[in-house]
Automatic annotation (TrEMBL):
It comes from Lactobacillus kullabergensis. Signal peptide: none annotated. This is PTS EIIA type-2 domain-containing protein. Gene3D superfamilies: Mannitol-specific EII, Chain A. CDD domains: PTS_IIA_fru. PROSITE patterns: PTS_EIIA_TYPE_2. It comes from the Bacteria. Residues 1-146 form the PTS EIIA type-2 domain. It holds the Pfam family PTS_EIIA_2.
Length: 146
């Protein structure tokens, strides 16, 4: 799982629509996505919600089909105030999300590996707390499994 210091959005106070636009603009600017990404992301999230409750802060893993992606990466957004996401697998339940991991995947084995690692990261309450409260989120993210 590769985190990139150019793929961080920090200290945000936005609604989901603006968050998705900021992430899409950053990912496009950095060469990770195609112009179709934002529309595909919004559509997929409306059909397959990605909010996850954890023992720490709420997280979400929005993503879309690989056809909208140019190269693999993960943009991490840390929110000062939560954004409501519908819970994965449950259209009725809402999750207050403070950390959002926008997954860009061209498909294949790398995607499965990244998802497994993210799920392990999300189960580590102490580490998620550390990421959310860190002064330097990038250094904390890359310290995973050190």
């Amino acid at each position: 799982m590769k985190f990139n210091k150019n793929l961080l959005l920090d200290n945000l106070e936005v609604e989901q629509e603006e968050l998705f636009k900021l992430a899409a603009d950053k990912l496009f600017q950095e060469g990770y996505t195609r112009k179709s990404y934002l529309k595909a992301l919004v559509k997929r999230e409306s059909v397959f919600p990605t909010g996850l409750r954890t023992k720490s802060v709420g997280v979400a893993i929005p993503h879309c089909d690989p056809v909208n992606i140019k190269k693999d990466g993960i943009l991490v957004a840390r929110l000062n105030k939560p954004v409501l996401f519908r819970q994965m697998g449950d259209f009725e339940t809402k999750v207050e999300v403070y950390l959002v991991f926008f997954i860009c995947s061209t498909g294949g084995q790398e995607q499965l590996k990244d998802l497994r690692e993210l799920m392990a990261l999300f189960q580590d309450k102490n580490y998620l707390d550390k990421v959310y409260h860190s002064k330097n989120i990038y250094n904390t993210l890359i310290s995973w499994k050190e």
